[in-house]
Amino acid sequence: MRIHVLSLFPGIFDGFLQGSIVRIAREKGAIDVELCDFRSFAAGRHATVDDRPFGGGPGMVLKPEPIFAAVEALEDTHGPMHRVMLTPAGRPLDQATLRRLSALPQLMILCGRYEGIDERVRSGIEWEEISIGDYVLSGGEVPAMVLIDGIARLLPGVLGDAESAELESFSTAGAVDHPQYTRPRDFRGMTVPDVLLSGDHAKIEEWRAQEAARRSEHRTLGTGTSPQSCAPQM
User: Fold this and answer.
1) Do 30 and 23 touch, CB atoms closer than 8 A?
2) Separation CA 52–CA 2 (nearest Å)
3) What are the DSSP calls for 206-223, one per residue?
């Protein structure tokens, strides 16, 4: 899979692309991430990419010309691709969306900046608009990393355990994962549930299903993670 990222600050991605699952996915040839600084498509001596908004107001707005030019140049070279705009107005990102996007051969991700993007970029180019949450960040680069990481781990051959991606949180009917424990058995008086040490796989699976359901219910009710478990929610 090839992902093209349009960003004014491509250097932000350097460490991200060289670490963890994304690095593994790239080394295995499962994913290719290409960074495009759309400032290079801006006209004029100063390569201006933003300007004051018509009608007044705070901040600066990204101009349409460099973004249109970048999109057209990339698609002229690599062919048409599915386009994603990261925006607070978008549809909330979920696991089903990640799975659908991971099946695409090519993806383009636009990272916004400043006060926003000229509305003609939205209306003049077809985008799938995605949000990672109802809060404000400095730009779309961090959301783009969330999207890329979520996609990379779903690509065939990336995770060592073929079942890992299927058993993670939100992979089954939107449920969160069950609590996980490892050694030591007793840490500061907090002990591993006896059922996990029983060797009875049927009982273990039953316990895990019950705990996952309980955690999902707590999350739906907005009460956070289970008060009976010290394991982090994944």
Assistant:
1) no
2) 34
3) HHHHHHHHHHHHHHHTT-
Total residues belonging to the chain: 234
CB 118 within 8 A of CB 61: yes
Q: Is residue 64 part of a domain?
A: yes
In the prediction, which pLDDT does 173 show? Answer: 52
Q: Return the SS3 of 62.
A: strand
User: How many domains are contained in the chain?
Assistant: 2
Q: Give the Cα separation of 136 and 43 in Å (integer).
A: 29
Q: What is the pLDDT of residue 226?
A: 39
- pTM over 0.85, yes/no: no
Per run of 10 residues, the mean pLDDT along the chain (length 234 residues) is 98 95 97 98 93 91 96 98 95 97 98 92 97 93 98 94 55 73 91 94 95 85 46 30
CA atoms within 13 A on the CB side of 33: 26
Which structural domain, as residue segments, surrounds residue 32? 2-152
Tell me, yes or no, whether 11 and 114 share the same domain. Answer: yes
Pairing, β 128-131 against β 186-187 = unpaired
Tell me the C-alpha distance between 125 and 123, whole Å. Answer: 6
Q: What single DSSP character describes residue 232?
A: P
Query: Which residues fall within 8 angstroms of residue 95, CB to CB, at 6 or more apart?
Result: 150, 169, 170, 171, 174
Asked if 107 and 216 sit in the same domain, the reply is no
**In the numeric block, which tokens belong to residue 176?**
């969160």
CB 45 within 8 A of CB 99: no
Which residue, 166, 73, 87, 184, is CA-closest to 129?
87
